């Protein structure tokens, strides 16, 4: 829809992908603005009628122009570092709309966030809360907080991206939440105002979200009865790409409706923090075929993008569709699509049926999330450029790095005199 063929050439909205890659070089990230707008509108519509707020998870793709687009749509932001805080402030986001998550917030990050008056800290341990209390006291502020509770829910995702089980490092156990909230409320510079969870990423079933939401609603009831004033319930992010945003929203509406009978008088806002579901499908990574190589019975398509540009296949064995930028009539072959990096794990797709020749370009789909934001310089490879497209217009939202950029921060010391 946002990426489709016109006369055998792949287009991003109204612009030829081949034209862009010839202008800006390969590898190249291209994003469709319309895809972002549509995904955001789907979440808004799915939750309409319910007091809600959508916080975009910055780590999915933190390019300033992409943050700015979500800001203009009215999104808040979920951040996990001081660097992400600097980015969202840079684009003029309201600090009140910023939620700070993450297990390892440093003293400096906490102080920075308090000074900027962010909307909420999502606290993942008691020692973290004590640190926030002491920083808030030192700076003479009150810190709005929510505990990130760990609802102990198993999900069917890669173990590296499931976070809601007791055995992993995230959140506080939900059974001890009431006690933690009461203790927190007794601290002079802490104001508990929300409940949060985030059970993992790339979750394609609704049941885990449903179970988590029910647990959060029960905890909300407990906290209200204990006299706390909780204003938001945050279900986190994690929606995968195979489940419709509409059915996710319908599930939330259904659970909340049932709950409302128990607490009709309470006013609170539901927060969600999608990253992937807002931006993944808006992005494609374009790469050039350098060589076609055959070894024994195996065929390799060696491309100029590697695990430094897109690490998801190597890290999580993630599957990304790979399609040609030009639909040629060339004979069809089954290839492993691999990068140029000196690691066996450097692959982008295995056993892909493609009709291609050397010099052609490929598009790796659904790479708007956790693509560029996880890119590295490994093998001294400059980061790719990023292009934003809307209808027939395009903008360079990050220019390609030069070799000089690679070592600009290094000091050359002559150790041997
Ligand atoms: C990563 C993260 C998200 C976003 O996850 P997606 O799978 O991209 O939707 C939301 N909230 C928190 C706390 C996160 O760490």
In a nutshell, what does this entry contain?
By secondary structure, the chain is α/β, with parallel strands linked by helices.
CATH architecture tag of the largest domain: Alpha-Beta Barrel
Oligomerization category of the chains in this entry: single chain
Total strands: 21
Residue-averaged pLDDT = 95
Number of DSSP helical runs: 12
Task: Describe the fold and architecture.
The protein is an alpha/beta fold and 417 residues long. The protein folds into 2 domains: 3-31 and 280-406, Beta Barrel (Lyase, Ornithine Decarboxylase, Chain A, domain 1), CATH 2.40.37; 94-274, Alanine racemase (TIM Barrel, Alpha-Beta Barrel), CATH 3.20.20. The chain contains 12 helices and 21 strands. The strands form 3 sheets. Strands 4, 14, 15, 16, 17, 18, 19, 20 and 21 form a 9-stranded mixed beta sheet that branches. An 8-stranded parallel barrel has the order 5-6-7-8-9-11-12-13, surrounded by 5 helices. A 3-stranded antiparallel beta sheet has the order 1-2-3. A hairpin with a 2-residue loop joins strand 1 (3-6) and strand 2. Helix 2 packs parallel to helix 9 (245-260). The longest helix is centred in the middle third of the chain and has 19 residues, at 207-225. The radius of gyration is 23 Å and the shape is globular. It starts with a strand and ends in a 10-residue tail after the last helix. The model has no long low-confidence stretch (mean pLDDT 95). The structure holds pyridoxal-5'-phosphate. The site of pyridoxal-5'-phosphate has 19 residues, from helix 10.
């Amino acid at each position: 829809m946002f990426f489709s063929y016109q006369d055998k050439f792949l287009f991003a909205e109204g612009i030829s992908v081949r034209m862009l890659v010839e202008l800006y070089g390969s590898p190249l990230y291209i994003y469709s603005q319309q895809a972002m707008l549509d995904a955001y509108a789907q979440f808004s519509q799915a939750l309409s009628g319910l007091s809600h707020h959508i916080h975009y998870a910055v780590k999915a793709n933190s390019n300033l122009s992409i943050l700015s687009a979500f800001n203009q749509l009215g999104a808040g932001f979920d951040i996990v570092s001081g660097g992400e805080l600097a980015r969202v402030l840079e684009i003029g986001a309201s600090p009140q709309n910023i939620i700070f998550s993450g297990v390892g917030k440093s003293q400096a990050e906490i102080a920075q966030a308090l000074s900027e008056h962010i909307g909420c800290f999502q606290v993942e341990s008691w020692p973290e809360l004590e640190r926030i209390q002491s920083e808030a006291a030192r700076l003479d502020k009150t810190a709005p907080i929510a505990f990130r509770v760990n609802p102990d829910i198993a999900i069917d995702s890669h173990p590296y991206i499931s976070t809601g089980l007791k055995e992993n490092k995230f959140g506080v156990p939900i059974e001890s939440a009431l006690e933690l909230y009461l203790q927190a409320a007794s601290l002079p510079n802490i104001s508990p105002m929300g409940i949060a969870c985030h059970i993992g990423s790339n979750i394609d079933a609704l049941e885990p979200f449903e179970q988590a939401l029910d647990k959060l609603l029960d905890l909300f009831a407990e906290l209200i009865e204990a006299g706390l004033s909780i204003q938001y319930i945050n279900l986190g992010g994690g929606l995968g790409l195979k489940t419709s945003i509409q059915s996710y929203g319908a599930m939330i509406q259904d659970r909340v409706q049932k709950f409302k009978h128990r607490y009709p008088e309470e006013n609170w806002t539901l927060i969600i923090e999608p990253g992937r579901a807002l931006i993944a499908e808006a992005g494609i990574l374009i790469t050039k075929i350098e060589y076609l190589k055959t070894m024994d019975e195996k065929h390799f398509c060696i491309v100029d993008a590697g695990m430094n540009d897109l690490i998801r296949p190597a890290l999580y064995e993630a599957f990304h569709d790979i399609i040609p930028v030009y639909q040629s009539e060339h004979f069809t072959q089954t290839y492993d699509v691999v990068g140029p990096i000196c690691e066996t794990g450097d692959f982008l797709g295995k056993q892909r049926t493609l009709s291609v020749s050397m010099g052609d370009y490929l598009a790796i789909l659904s790479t708007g999330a956790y693509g560029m934001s996880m890119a590295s310089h490994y093998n001294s490879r400059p980061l790719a450029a990023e292009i934003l497209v809307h209808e027939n217009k395009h903008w360079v939202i990050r220019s390609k790095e030069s070799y000089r950029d690679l070592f600009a921060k290094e000091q050359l010391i002559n150790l041997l005199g």
